[in-house]
Amino acid sequence: MQKDLFSLQGKVALITGASRGIGQAIALAFAEAGADLVLSSRNRRPPELENAAEQARAKGGKVLAIAAHVGKKEDVDQLVEKTLAAFGRIDILVNNAGGNPVLSTMADLEEEAFDKAIEVNLKGAFLVSKAVVGAMVRQGGGRIINISSISGIRARNDRTGAYCITKAALNMMTQVMARELAPHRILVNAIAPGSIRTEFSRVNWTDPERKAQRLQEVELRRFGEPEEVAGLALFLASGASSFVTGEIIRVDGGQTI
Ligand SMILES: NC(=O)c1ccc[n+]([C@@H]2O[C@H](COP(=O)([O-])OP(=O)(O)OC[C@H]3O[C@@H](n4cnc5c(N)ncnc54)[C@H](OP(=O)(O)O)[C@@H]3O)[C@@H](O)[C@H]2O)c1
């Protein structure tokens, strides 16, 4: 058993959607634990991504910021190539980039919006995972952590159906890959956050009606903070979780009890 169960000293982590919110909080927690990092996003709001990298750098490790759209294979390939060129290995992948392009019932949902939800939440995690697995196999192991959602566990009825469906599929991809990659000592798990206060969920904590409805659902009667997801990501990235794979772990303040 290693001495510091939660240390990431000597590890290299690639985190998508790391310019803000949950991804950025995970980046800072990993930097604090000693990892070198590659932080990625589409870089839609410069200098957001570079600022996130700068904050992580202040914790002491090496940190690169690389722009990439996770749904575009060329972008993903250059992201992984640059990571390997800079650090020579990838120990931890966090598939965090995601979102909900439109609010619509399934009956009214445009085909393009359905494709977009699949592209970022599901295909993105697939493409980046596929691109890093070769390196992890050569290294003799690794960790893949998918940021899913409780919306992938329990169907909602608030016009987020496409999002729910992609996250449910991501949960199954987590379990399939956990089984397939276990012989290579690659552990694959998912985190299913509930209502976390970020840019993505702004309408839920600013619109009075939606906010009241959410708080009624959450047993702890408050929104979670991105840092409250980061601790579980650190557990799943570190030696502390060496016998955990194929899990979908909720961080939801009791919302789905
Ligand atoms: N907040 C919640 O309540 C909640 C609950 C459950 C699950 N989640 C999940 O947690 C993850 C992070 O969400 P968040 O709340 O932290 O959202 P956020 O604050 O909006 O951050 C999303 C991040 O993803 C990046 N991104 C978006 N589309 C991308 C793409 N196609 N390719 C690469 N990067 C992309 C964004 O940067 P760019 O715009 O620069 O690309 C940003 O860095 C998502 O998977 C979300 O589904 C969130």
What topology does this entry show?
Layout: E1 12-16, H1 21-32, E2 36-41, H2 48-57, E3 63-67, H3 73-87, E4 92-95, H4 111-139, E5 142-147, H5 161-181, E6 186-193, H6 202-206, H7 208-217, H8 227-237, E7 248-251
Parallel strand pairs: 1-2, 1-4, 2-3, 4-5, 5-6, 6-7
Helix pairs in contact: 1-2, 1-8, 3-4, 4-5
The protein binds NADP nicotinamide-adenine-dinucleotide phosphate (NAP).
NADP nicotinamide-adenine-dinucleotide phosphate is lined by residues 16-23, 41-45, 69-71, 96-99, 120, 124, 147, 149, 193, 195-196, 198-201.
The strand order across the widest sheet is: 3-2-1-4-5-6-7
Helix/strand class: alpha/beta
Q: Estimate percent helicity.
A: 40-55%
CATH topology type: Rossmann fold
CATH class: Alpha Beta
Structure notes:
The protein has a single domain, classed as 3-Layer(aba) Sandwich (Rossmann fold), CATH 3.40.50. Helix content is 44%, strand content 15%. The chain has 8 helices and 7 strands; from the N terminus they run βαβαβαβαβαβαααβ. Strands 3-2-1-4-5-6-7 form a 7-stranded parallel β-sheet, sandwiched between helices. Helix 2 links the parallel strand 2 and strand 3. Helix 1 runs parallel beside helix 2, helix 1 crosses helix 8 and helix 4 runs parallel beside helix 5. It is globular, with a radius of gyration of 17 Å. The site of NADP nicotinamide-adenine-dinucleotide phosphate has 31 residues, from helix 1 and helix 4.
Offer a few descriptive terms.
Rossmann fold, binds NADP nicotinamide-adenine-dinucleotide phosphate, 7 strands, alpha/beta, 257 residues, seven-stranded parallel sheet
